From TrEMBL:
Pfam families listed in its UniProt record: AMP-binding (PF00501), AMP-binding_C_2 (PF14535)
Organism encoding this protein: Pueribacillus theae
Protein name: Phenylacetate--CoA ligase
AMP-dependent ligase C-terminal domain span: 405-498
Domain named AMP-dependent synthetase/ligase: residues: 149-354
Superkingdom of origin: Bacteria
């Protein structure tokens, strides 16, 4: 195997005449691109980073490594721990420059010198979305936790505001580079390669997730079609015309687009060139039931890439599909009980808490993500040493409903309904006067509106729905059947709780 200097680019030229030339050029870490040249006969030049491509001299074939950054992705746990704690001290000192974190430290009665290890982080309070909203409201527009002058900012992004007042995130040029590398590492683990044609069906506007896809796929060297959301007809036309091999979208839109294609007479398994669908923006991308249904419908491999604006691309699935890998060299993670704020035990679910290690503009210390994950001590057989969360993001804590003491999540209900024959594709959780106790305002009954296909026996369908929900949550729902397509579909984040 011919080894190239790390971070150096090289050209591999392969002509029809079997003439092959391999030359290394240390031209730095710049944006990837593809060029075509004529060298005696038709040939292709792919410019890629040396860590992405291995050249097998014996077989005269060009192959790809399974790892984007093999050093970081396979680093020993002991070495990784030392690396993270070195980064932690730097990010603590950086964050302490801001009034926001000075208050946090003062409230906890600690100084930066008290935080030396990951275990020491417990001395500091949690940082929540409400903390950020309050900071930006009292110190508009960016809050009082920005650690760099505005002249160093390369971009401004906003949350959707789906759970309250939208918040603003700023990136320095280095932040953008870090996010781009993190994105490329994730996509490489899926199997995306420079020859892929990627269709970006993520909401653009000010949302960082859209650019996360664009930057990462471009860094790999893919041809990227940045569509954004909207016009399902146009999305399918583009997929067909340009031979799209990979599409990024939400789980709910993957189901909706397949339904739409069927009505248009398009057989997504036969008429398209798709090989991968990457899910983001909603829980469910790592749920085995939801993933298998999408794979079966589209005839593709499905991968999960969870994230949030404040910690974009914290995790990704690999080809083994054992769960979501944490980007360990970029984040310190905790999984805490939502009520006690204490660490959960293996096999228990809790809220993911993140501390950023590679963020310049707006570092976050003990960020309460509101995302539930399952804590496990198992590792993935893929060779990566990063921690894995089976099932990825299980649900959002702000989506959770407590019904007679039982925690219920829309994503869990969706997973159960996908296993019921005759399910029409959509449902709603209904909160009304008949399901809420007047004295306390607490829910005591789970009411569902569920789409049922017309050819399905209604009595059997309701029984099967109740059985599946009972098995998953130990609660029996009240079920109202509605016609297929009577409930709205979603191009972006699905909202399945309605109040009457």
């Amino acid at each position: 195997m011919l080894q190239k200097p790390r971070y150096h680019r090289f050209f591999t030229i392969k002509a029809v005449s079997n003439l092959e030339v391999d030359a290394a050029f240390p031209i730095g870490l710049l944006m990837l691109f593809k060029i075509r040249v004529l060298l005696g006969s038709v040939c292709m030049v792919n410019e890629v980073m040396s860590r992405q491509r291995a050249y097998d001299l014996q077989t005269k074939e060009i192959g790809y490594s399974e790892f984007w950054d093999i050093e970081m992705e396979t680093m020993s746990r002991d070495k990784l721990l030392r690396l993270k704690e070195d980064k932690l001290q730097k990010i603590i000192e950086q964050a302490y420059q801001t009034p926001f974190y000075q208050r946090k430290f003062k409230e906890a009665g600690v100084s930066p010198s008290d935080i030396r290890t990951i275990e020491d982080l417990k001395k500091l309070p949690i940082t929540t979305k409400d903390d950020i909203r309050k900071s930006q409201a009292e110190h508009p527009p960016y809050g009082d936790y920005l650690t760099v002058p505005l002249k160093q900012i390369s971009g401004l992004y906003s949350s959707s505001g789906s759970t309250g007042q939208p918040t603003t995130s700023l990136l320095t040029f280095r932040d953008q580079e870090v996010v781009t590398e993190r994105s490329a590492r994730s996509y490489w683990a899926f199997g995306i390669r420079p020859e892929d044609v990627v269709q970006n069906i993520i909401n653009p506007q000010l949302f960082l997730g859209y650019w996360f896809v664009h930057w990462g796929a471009t860094r790999i060297g893919c041809s990227v079609i940045s569509m954004g959301i909207g016009s399902s007809d146009r999305q399918l036309q583009v997929m067909q015309r340009y031979g799209v091999t990979c599409a990024f979208m939400t789980p709910s839109y993957a189901f909706h687009l397949a339904e739409f294609a069927s009505k248009k007479g398009i057989h997504v398994r036969k008429d398209l060139n798709l090989q991968y669908i990457v899910l983001s923006g909603e829980p469910g991308g790592s749920d085995p039931v939801i993933r298998s249904r999408i794979e079966e419908t589209w005839g593709v491999k499905v991968f999960d890439c969870p994230g949030m604006m404040e910690a974009m691309g914290w995790g990704y699935t690999c080809k083994e599909q054992k769960g979501v890998h944490m980007q360990e060299d970029h984040f310190i993670w905790e999984v805490l009980d939502p009520e006690t704020k204490e660490p959960v035990q293996p096999g228990e679910r809790g809220v993911l808490v993140l501390t950023t290690l590679e963020t310049d503009a707006q570092p976050l210390i003990r960020w309460w993500t509101d995302d539930y994950v399952l804590y496990s001590e198992d590792y993935c057989p893929c060779g990566r040493t990063s921690h894995v969360f089976p099932g990825g993001i299980l649900s959002r804590s702000d989506d959770m409903l407590k019904i007679s003491g039982v925690r219920v999540w829309p994503s869990g209900i969706e997973s159960a309904l996908k296993e019921v024959n005759g399910f029409g594709g959509e449902f709603r959780i209904v909160k009304d006067s008949s399901s809420i106790r007047k004295e306390t305002g607490a829910l005591f009954k789970l009411k569902l509106q569920v789409e049922c296909r017309s050819e399905t026996d209604a009595v059997d369908f309701i029984k099967n729905v109740k059985d599946k929900i009972k098995a998953k949550f130990n609660i029996t729902p009240e079920v109202e059947l509605v016609a297929v397509n009577s409930l709205d579909r979603f191009e972006f984040k699905a909202k399945r709780i309605i109040t009457k």
